[in-house]
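Give me a protein, keeping tokens residue-aligned:
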Amino acid sequence: MPELPEVTALVADLRRRAVGRTVDRCEIRAFAALKTAGIGPDALQGDTVDAVTRHGKFLDLRIGAHHLIAHLARAGWMQWRDEVPEAVARSGTGPLAARLVFADAHGSDACLDITEAGTKKSLALYLVADPEEVPGVARLGPDPLDPAFTFEVFAGILADAGRAQIKGVLRRQELIAGIGNAYSDEILHAARMSPFTPAAMDQEHAERLYAAIERTLTDAIERAAGTPASGLKREKRSGMRVHGRTGETCPVCGDTVREVTYADSSMQYCPTCQTGGKPLADRVLSRLLK
């Protein structure tokens, strides 16, 4: 799933390619992906892409008076094409969910394909006049790289979360926007903290975690800077120290990276760095093994 660093890089890539382009047409191929009905895709025709921004993990293309907002979910992605494919896939078949076709003054075409792999479809598209009309955007907590996200703000979030496990707190978008499963693993590894640590922690641990959030996300953004959309997934994996690396060696201490598996996800951690050398029980209600 694309998280804050990848969406930030996608925004930069699309700003370079799409801003100033005129929309020729917006084709919705997976009709279930479009979650709004008040504004139709035809409303974008003839308008110009004025800006590309993000809200947490939501990507926002401002086109004239409207916003095309995408949440790429687990398996969604975007692909820029300098030429529009001649073959037209039938709606509802294949990974193509939507296509935004552009044409410049000289008649040269390009397009942005929004795709989703697999059979479990979670990608969501919204056509709105105001991003706050999207429920997921309206509920977002503070952005962890916004200057307003001070340590005091973070400490308040932790205190309010109480005994909730810190792994889940980092992933809750209404508390902190943009961090998902992968970067929460990386942040906790950088902070040398168990994923099951209660959120209400002492100031020393809270400051260490706050610093790890900023450092991990900033480093990931810097690595991805200038990478085209086609290379971002590869770049994301190459920078991971524990996430997705079960059975490999921790680059910090040399211990073996371990995993806890849930019904629809998994998390990775280093026992030596994070749990005092004790493996976590691999079940949904995991606790430190005695």
